[in-house]
Design goal:
By secondary structure, the chain is α+β, with helices and mostly antiparallel strands. The chain has one domain. The chain contains seven helices and nine strands. It has helices at 2-43, 51-56, 125-133, 158-162, 189-196, 202-206, 218-227; strands at residues 59-67, 77-84, 98-103, 115-122, 136-137, 144-146, 165-171, 174-177, 184-187. Strands 1, 2, 3, 4, 5, 6, 7, 8 and 9 form a nine-stranded mixed β-sheet that branches. Helix 4 links the parallel strand 6 and strand 7 (165-171).
Amino acid sequence: MKIIWRVLMALLLIALTATAETKETRKQNARLQDSGVVMSEILNMPESIPDHMLDRTKCVVVIPSVRKAAFVVGASYGRGAMVCRTGDDFTGPWGAPSMMALEGGSFGLQAGAEATDFVFLIMNEHGATSLLKSKVKLGGDIAAVAGPVGRDAQAGTDAYMRAEILTYSRARGIFAGISLDGSTLRPDNDGNEALYGERYNARSIVLGRGPQRPPSAERLVTLLENASPVPANG
């Protein structure tokens, strides 16, 4: 009788673990789908990301629908996805997404907004490789500035040219550059494991050496392929 009971308990534990993994996988797929929706809406706004800045971008990070409830003292956070151009020099086609986490006590929601979307443009190889290795502090470990807005906006100032990351937010239908100095970005390794079913590191995923991109990422990646299929030189 004891043996039967132990077998039943073991089967129950396996079933509960499988259910939890399925729920977590669904959560990551939903985040990817939401990231695609956010990017689609932003790219279709009259005052969007300048085309020439997107062409210079090595990677794009989208953190969708960060809500007021997520902002607790000392524990503010958001979750989303990072998509990069493949290859060691980040000049290939857009690849599979790595899940990402935005954390820190210094960033907040726009006044009166129920949810805020964040978009980050990673402008050079150093910025991209730093993000793929570990947590980076914006404005500390890596140079970050509020990004310019408007498809034809000129962004030739020294601040923009030196920046490794351009940061944006959208709330209440307004898309604008925003300073997020003091916040941190890092790969969400647990999210990647839930999404892909194995413990891939972020670098192998985004550079095209890991898993194939999931169907939930198709909208986001296709949007980037259509908006900027070939990177600009320099």
